[in-house]
Write a structure and sequence with these properties.
The protein is of the alpha/beta class. The chain is 35% helix and 19% strand. Strands 3-2-1-4-5-6-7-8 form an eight-stranded mixed β-sheet, with helices on both faces. Helix 4 packs parallel to helix 5 and helix 4 crosses helix 9. The model has no long low-confidence stretch (mean pLDDT 96).
């Protein structure tokens, strides 16, 4: 049931066509796993929380430093040195006391991923490295749940809603991991792409609209342009060819 406070909080989104109180109850009973509480994970976590997604599992083994604060809005200067997942839980519970937030201050590995994701209905990939993204990709396929991928660079971003076997997997789209390096970024870029990840997750959880399946959305902030490219399954993909 939704409390009187929740009905007031979510009133404006319940006015949308196809939403209403029953859809809001779906969100309250849903569980999401957010991999990473950094640049992408911050807007993702915040907007899922204020939309009323009832159970948020957020994972990050790192702690914020000064160079993170231009974009990682879950944290502030007083929390430098505090684990990001724990810091994020504090922020989210202040924003919405009517949701449940579970913080995991550990690395996502092949051995830990199934336990960390748990009973989540969807995975939000907010990582900054592809080895971990591939682990999440495998976990999503094994659990039969969607993975919402996003990446950022400077004022550019990419996004895809991945749900094997309906769509290619992440390994089909990116067969090899790009080199790991410190990349430039302005805070509004993960704000943009993280917000789009939330839209994709909410559409899936609420059963409204059409997720961006089988396509890669490319955003060029320098030109304020969006382009969408069809993605294709690799029949020899080592990750999903037998799915």
């Amino acid at each position: 049931m939704l409390s009187e406070r929740e009905l007031k909080r979510y009133n404006r989104q319940m006015l949308m066509e196809g939403w209403g109180e029953e859809t809001q109850k779906k969100l309250k009973s849903s569980t999401v796993f957010i991999a990473g509480a950094g640049g992408l994970g911050s807007p993702v976590a915040i907007y899922l929380a204020v939309a009323g997604v009832g159970n948020i599992r957020i994972c990050d083994f790192d702690s914020p430093d000064w160079s993170n604060l231009n974009r990682q809005i879950l944290h502030n200067h007083a929390r430098i040195g505090i684990n990001k997942a724990i810091s994020g839980k504090t922020t989210l519970e202040e924003l919405n006391p009517d949701i449940n937030v579970t913080a995991f201050a550990e690395k996502i590995t092949c051995d830990s991923v199934d336990r960390l994701v748990g009973n989540a209905d969807i995975i939000l990939d907010c990582m900054d490295n592809f080895p971990t993204r591939y682990i999440l990709n495998d976990c999503a396929m094994n659990k039969g749940i969607p993975l919402v991928f996003a990446s950022i660079w400077g004022m550019e971003g990419r996004l895809s809603f991945i749900q094997v076997p309906e769509t290619p997997c992440l390994k089909c789209i990116y067969p090899e991991a790009p080199p790991s390096e410190v990349f430039p970024v302005v805070g509004a870029t993960p704000g943009t792409m993280g917000s789009l990840q939330v839209i994709e997750a909410l559409k899936y959880l609420a059963g409204v609209g059409q997720p961006h399946k089988g396509k890669l959305l490319v955003w060029n902030g320098y030109k304020t342009e969006f382009k969408s490219f069809k993605t294709y399954r690799d029949p020899e993909c080592p990750a999903c060819s037998k799915k």
